[in-house]
Amino acid sequence: MRRRERGKTMLERIQRGPQRRPLAVCVYGVPGVGKTTFGASAPGALVWCLEDGASFIDVAKLPAPESWNEALGVLQELADKPHDFKTLVVDTLDALEVLAVAHVCAEAKKKTLADFAWGGGYAALANEWRRFLSGLDNLRAKRAMHIVLIAHEHRKRHDDPELGQYEMYRPKLQEKAWGLTNEWCDAVLFAQFDAAVFEKEGQKNRAIVSGRRVLRTVRETGFVAKNRLGLPRKVDLDWKSFEAAAVPPSTDVLRKELVELCTLAGEDVATKAHGFLADRGESVETLRAAIETVKTYLAEKSAA
Predict the structure, then answer these.
(1) How far are the Cα atoms of 90, 164, 195, 232, 233 from residue 48, in angstroms, in the given order?
(2) CATH class of the 20-246 domain in this structure
(3) Helix (H, G, I), strand (E, B) or coil at 227
(4) Organism's domain of life (predicted)?
(5) What pLDDT, in 10s, does the model give residues 133-178?
(6) Domain map of the chain by residue range?
(7) Cα(58)–Cα(11) distance, integer angstroms
(8) How much is the pTM?
(9) Packed helices 68-80 and 93-108: angle between N→C axes, nearest 10 degrees
(10) Partners of 166 in beta bridges
(11) For the segment 91-120, what is each residue's pLDDT rounded down to a tens digit?
(12) How far is CA 220 from the centre of its chain?
């Protein structure tokens, strides 16, 4: 807990406006989409190679720890000792979790987490995972480092009271570890090859997968995602695009972009966009949503 600023009351310490701080994101997705490359392109990146994803990338690499305690010690060393790195890329979270599980089981002399009574193994894993996230918080506070957590994807059945059962992509972690990570991150981003389904009169729907690699930033039926950064629903899978999107432009800049797109899309689309904004107001979020919708329309029109 932060110490109270001397001589100031609680009301005098109220802050206004967004507070800039190092980014903390989790990126997961399909194999080969470029998750590690995304993390390695962040400023001053140090890739913690728990797997071999960065083998062919020219970036500073930190070897995998041999134990969970060694992993926690690495975070402490990065926080305490001087260095020039600005981003820590953990590649991958699920490989790191294996060390945490092995540590918990060894401490209790159990073979698996399921061997603990009353879910005690999963609770112990959650406690260790909190230590890991606390170490990341320490890096952000003391070294102002961005944190990029990379994970493999996992399809899990989800039971929705309104929509029924369906499968969703989510990071491949134990439930409790993932729940803590999801809460901790500023953004959870699903990386994929962009695709769209087009309809033509008299023909079956067809899906087209483009070469564009994107980050999906808002949860939808098929995948978990979130962000506290006001990101558009899709961002190109490269650090510069992501960082630019995380620092919202002015509404004037976005309004100008929307006008230019509507000019290309035609009068009908422009009228619908105007109605959308009239109902919801011209905030950064609504302007970005309108821009993304018009871009999707133009892409479908081009592919038709």
Answers:
(1) 5, 39, 31, 29, 29
(2) alpha beta
(3) strand
(4) Bacteria
(5) 999 999 999 999 999 999 999 887 777 777 767 788 899 999 999 9
(6) 20-246, 251-303
(7) 49
(8) 0.80
(9) 120
(10) 158
(11) 989 999 999 999 999 999 999 999 999 989
(12) 14
